[in-house]
Design goal:
This protein is an alpha/beta fold. It has 11 helices and 16 strands. The chain has 2 domains: about 220 residues, Rossmann fold; about 90 residues, no CATH class. Helix 4 crosses helix 5. The longest helix is centred in the middle third of the chain and has 16 residues. This is Iron transport system ATP-binding protein.
Length: about 325
């Protein structure tokens, strides 16, 4: 495979549809290899249009996009970008097997008759093994669970051997086990030098595995390293009143020396938790629950809620409120900002 400088360059891009609707305007950002970047924004903010632009499906009226320092048409011909779609974009009733879907990732390497060579079959087998779906190879795609379907399209992207991978809402409709498996795979791909752009509403996962974040609402609101950019202030600008928002504070809520407030923001998926004095504070790190569910016992002598919500040490009523918000994403008392 040819050597390229893996990168995405979006420079002052505006996309306007035939009906006159401007989907994105004056959008600029840059990403380099060995990076996982979250694309964050409310529905209708232009995330899908940006992905279509990166895939060459819509043409900007203004500005320029380059992939690996090449125009999009050349990058596509060289199989430099792969796409993992949302579940809603796929016809699950189409009579095609898992193996056939993964083999589609090799089409760019085949002739017009699309007859796979030995190397194509090898790459498909390796891709299926990597996401643990080789036993599903001959199943019809519509028969699979949501998590299995997502793994199939990840395998297709792997078989394509593209340095740039776009994932559109990869965590929607999957269980925790599959989500963790996807995150582990993305980390491996990052270590191999891939550039991965992930569109997600799963705000609570962003600080766990994303190096950078691009936050948009028709244009780029903020972009940069996650620890510097992914904060409450920028989230409130990007999402406005769409986010569900709880803020807990006051000395009466504490029984320790930590007087910081707790803020929970959710877009009806996994919530993101901030604790600190200002809206610029970074989000809380993922908590290590250390619960042996299979044996129905905790690896700690602490009460269950203390274990789940460490380092918070509020009274049990407060802990229950936070836990229900973080786990469920929606509570009766969660009001828009």
């Amino acid at each position: 495979m040819e050597s390229f400088s893996t990168s995405i360059r979006v420079n002052d891009v505006t996309v306007r549809y035939n009906n006159g609707h401007t989907a994105i305007h004056d959008m600029s950002f840059s990403l380099n290899d060995g990076t996982i970047c979250a694309l964050v924004g409310v529905n209708g903010s232009g995330k899908s249009t940006l992905f279509k632009s990166l895939m060459g499906l819509v043409k900007p009226q203004k500005g320029e996009i380059k992939l690996c320092n090449l125009p999009i048409a050349q990058a596509l011909k060289r199989n430099l970008i792969a796409y993992v779609p949302q579940s809603e974009e796929v016809d699950w009733q189409f009579p095609v097997s898992v193996y056939d879907v993964v083999m589609m990732g090799r089409y760019g390497y085949m002739n017009l008759l699309r007859i796979p060579k030995a190397i194509d079959k090898q790459k498909v087998q390796e891709a299926m093994q990597r996401v643990n779906i080789e036993h599903l190879a001959h199943r019809q795609i519509g028969e699979l669970s949501g998590g299995q379907k997502k793994r199939v399209f990840l395998a297709r992207a792997l078989a394509q051997q593209s340095p740039i991978i776009l994932l559109d809402e990869p965590f929607t409709g999957v269980d925790v086990k599959t989500e963790n498996a996807i995150v582990d795979l993305l980390r491996q791909l990052r270590s191999e030098g891939h550039l991965i752009l992930v569109s997600t509403h799963n705000l609570g996962s962003v600080p766990d595995f994303c190096d950078q974040v691009v936050m948009i609402n028709r244009t780029v609101i903020a972009a940069g390293k996650t620890e510097d950019t992914f904060n409450q202030h920028n989230l409130e600008i990007v999402f406005g009143g769409v986010l569900r928002h709880i803020k807990l504070q006051g000395e009466d809520l504490h029984n320790d020396e930590d007087k910081r407030s707790v803020t929970v923001l959710t877009d009806d998926e996994k919530a993101v938790v901030f604790y600190g004095e200002t809206k610029q504070d970074p989000p809380a790190t993922t908590l290590d629950y250390r619960i042996d569910i299979a044996n129905n016992k905790k690896r700690s002598n602490k009460p269950m809620l203390d274990l789940l919500l460490e380092p918070f040490s509020y009274d049990y009523m407060l802990k229950a409120m936070i836990l229900s918000t973080v786990v469920g994403g929606i509570c009766a008392f969660c009001l828009p900002i």
